[in-house]
Design a protein that fits this description.
The complex is a heterotetramer, with two copies of chain A (79 residues) and two copies of chain B (141 residues).
Chain A: E1 3-7, H1 10-16, E2 20-24, H2 29-40, E3 50-53, E4 56-58, E5 69-73
Parallel strand pairs in A: 1-5
Antiparallel strand pairs in A: 1-2, 3-4, 3-5
Chain B: E1 5-8, H1 14-19, E2 28-35, E3 39-40, E4 43-52, H2 54-71, E5 76-82, E6 84-87, E7 91-99, H3 102-119, E8 122-128, E9 133-135
Parallel strand pairs in B: 1-5
Antiparallel strand pairs in B: 2-7, 3-4, 4-6, 4-8, 5-7, 8-9
Helix pairs in contact in B: 2-3
The chains are: A alpha+beta (79), B alpha+beta (141).
Chain lengths: 79, 141, 141, 79
């Protein structure tokens, strides 16, 4: 199956133990996050995150596109 | 296109940022600086680290500044946010806004810092004096 | 008693004023600067002069800053106002406020500049490019 | 009659042609201003001014005290 890349930041990276990993390009972004959450034990539900694809914010119901770079954005705390 | 928002992984000079906003039409200049405090929510802080999703942070930061420039009657605006390790007392974020009049300068400056804090993918990792540490993922307000 | 308000008959350095407001408890620093514009109310301005009733201006300025320090949850605040002849682009007034949080810093900074402009006995004399000149005595708003 | 000193600023000084002058310590501050306004042709009525005595704001109905320093404060325009 074709692959996409997931980027992890902040607490998600700590929980995943890696800054990025390849994933199967399968289903939509919400389904992908739920699978990864189960695998890595992420504390935050998707409702508290935003998702970005190839450097731009995206909708959770978008399909996971092969070759794309996906980032899950936990609540931000800059400033 | 002029850059209005930038990330900086080293300390930056606010005077040179400010100088880029001033011209003869400016009557009011409002600025805000966020500094690393020695306490947060009652816990003694030793230092902190800001991490950004740089590509998206820069794009979203530019959008915030573009919105400020279109919503308010201002002449120019800039924001710089630090990333990496910061010690107590270091400057974390700077916003500067120039305008003909002070109302717009204050309102836009406030808008920029509020939007940057709520929308731009930058995360704060605090190290506490008691040895604990953690990422801040505030509840949306 | 620490002075929080002062008149200056020469250009002053905002960086050293700011430095006096910062310590490890400061999380937010808001500042406002008023600059001499090249236009006012549609008239091209050549330069201006600020005159103060110095004794009363200093006393009233200190009262404004004392009110800001008691009304808002801030750590410190200062204001410096120029007097004498100023050219286009020169700094006329500077306000700086430090606080643990940005809400109070912004509100107090705005309060200080508004009160200084409405209460402190300082008058602006504008010289216009067309040769005319005059004192500004605005209607109370 | 005992004297007080009046200070003029901004447009009042331009109209009076002097920065200060001695005046008779007679009546209240409003009456003094009205006499000086008639003499110098000040444009502003007392309602648009404040008055200060010896470096502090004062009330218009205060008597003019001998030896005091009186300032009429036209609308300010700092900032």
């Amino acid at each position: 199956m074709a692959l996409a890349t997931v980027l992890y930041f902040a607490s998600l990276r700590d929980a995943a133990g890696v800054a990025s990993e390849p994933v199967d390009a399968d289903g939509d972004l919400r389904g992908l996050y739920d699978r990864l959450r189960a695998r890595h034990g992420f504390a935050l539900p998707s409702e508290r995150l935003r998702v970005a694809v190839d450097g731009e914010f995206a909708r959770w119901d978008q399909p996971v596109r092969a070759g794309s770079e996906i980032a899950f954005i936990p609540p931000v705390s800059g400033g | 296109m002029t850059k209005h928002f930038s990330l900086s992984d080293t300390p930056f000079d606010t005077a040179s940022e400010r100088a880029q906003l001033l011209d003869d039409r400016v009557g009011g200049f409002a600025s805000f600086e966020g500094w690393v405090r020695d306490h947060n929510d009652g816990r003694a802080v030793h230092g902190l680290r800001y991490e950004a999703y740089a590509a998206l942070a820069e794009a979203e930061g530019e959008r915030v500044l573009a919105e400020a420039l279109s919503k308010f009657d201002i002449l120019d605006a800039r924001c710089v946010h630090r990333v990496g390790d910061l010690a107590i007392g270091e400057l974390a974020v700077w916003v500067g806004v120039s305008a003909a009049h002070r109302d717009a300068a204050f309102a836009a400056c406030r808008f920029v810092i509020d939007e940057v804090k709520s929308r731009v993918p930058i995360w704060k990792h605090e190290r506490y004096v008691d040895g604990d540490a953690g990422w801040l993922h505030p509840q949306q307000s």
